[in-house]
Fold this sequence. Notes:
Largest sheet: none
Number of helices: 14
Low-confidence stretches: 446-460
Distance between the termini: 34 Å
Mean pLDDT: 83
Number of strands: 0
Amino acid sequence: MNKDLTTGNPAKSLWLFCLPMFGSIVFQQLYNIADSLVAGKFIGENALAAVGNSYNITLIFIAFAFGCNIGCSVIVSQLFGAKDYKTMKTSVYTALIASAALCAVLMSVGLLSCDTLLRLMKTQAEIMADSSLYLTIYIWGLPFLFFYNIATGIFSALGDSKTPFIFLAFSSSANILIDILFVKSFSMGIAGVAWATFLCQGISCVLALFVVLKRLADIKISGKVPVFSWNQLKKIAVVAIPSILQQSFISVGNMLIQGRINSFGVSVTAGYSAAVKLNNLVITSFTTIGNGISNFAAQNLGARKYERIREGFLAGLKLVWCLCVPFCIIYIAFGKYLLLLFLNESSSTALLTGRQFLWILSPFYFVVSAKLTADGILRGTSAMKQFMAATFTDLILRVILSFVLSDMLNAATGIWLSWPIGWSIATVLSVFFYRRGLKNTFRKDYQFSCGSSPALTQQK
């Protein structure tokens, strides 16, 4: 069901829209968590390290898919808010065609270079073969990743966050069962983990595409709809490319950090691999809510309802802080028991590594969630330069400090300390850019109402 986010109580509209998105990302994270859980419990510590090691490279592909999602979603949201349905449909078809071409290029590059990337991360010899196998199968499933992300971006742009939740709830639950079936019953090892994800993600992709195309067909318009537009591709790219660069540089940064982590041994790598899955569940949840805020801001920007954007930011901030409280308490007090889902009691070094990681990072969820909420507004209003500035500041600081602090302390703990420092400084920048941009929006809207300025389409 399509939903207009430009009417009704802003806080209520945003919360009702974002909560299913939060549920969706919880199930989305079950894909990766299930892989690590089954690998660690039913195959061994080396298999867990291999999945975690490969994950940093898969994040590069996810970055491109996520960028296509955001670019399509923001532009379609603006057109939906402006009731320009014909151009909106053209934007959707353009995004699908462009994403298919991009996916084909990435698959070719990935299949040729995955072993090289693993070696650059200083992957240990004992997990190299499993890492390469897992990564290769993952790359063959990239079309499902890309088209599913485009479909969910369109659902979000139309104000529908419930349909993707239903797809993910079904496919993620099935993924856990098939993971166990392939690994435990069929003894497929690490390949079973990868093929289970491939199969379940493929099914959810096909279903999502079918429903979203039918949803678009139900929006009746007059005249023929062009299936491709260079102008719309340019608009999508203006939003998508910075998001892709952001996520790609984060992935590259994580690969550099992963190389440093690998230097401390397989047990530390395994402990980090388990803990970072729990951390990513939180961060990706905040990011997804930020995406919902982007859709909310984009629709209201298209409808020229700027006051609702400010109210949406405050409502989003309350929402993510409500989520911070239980995550912080659970990770600090019960982190060991969550890590034991992936590890065995005998993995003492890995357990200690994972607990230290969670103890250091979880109190700062309140900080990074504010950044990701502000980032949602920046993306939704196409303030991509400011968005990139804050994000790259965080990334550069974390990469540099992970090496400096780990050398100073001669321990992996120094790497974990780089996260909260980078988050804190970048949050100050994101909130500053959001507040300054909002003032400019109100000022330009006032000038327009006096007949002296065109409507704002991009924040300066």
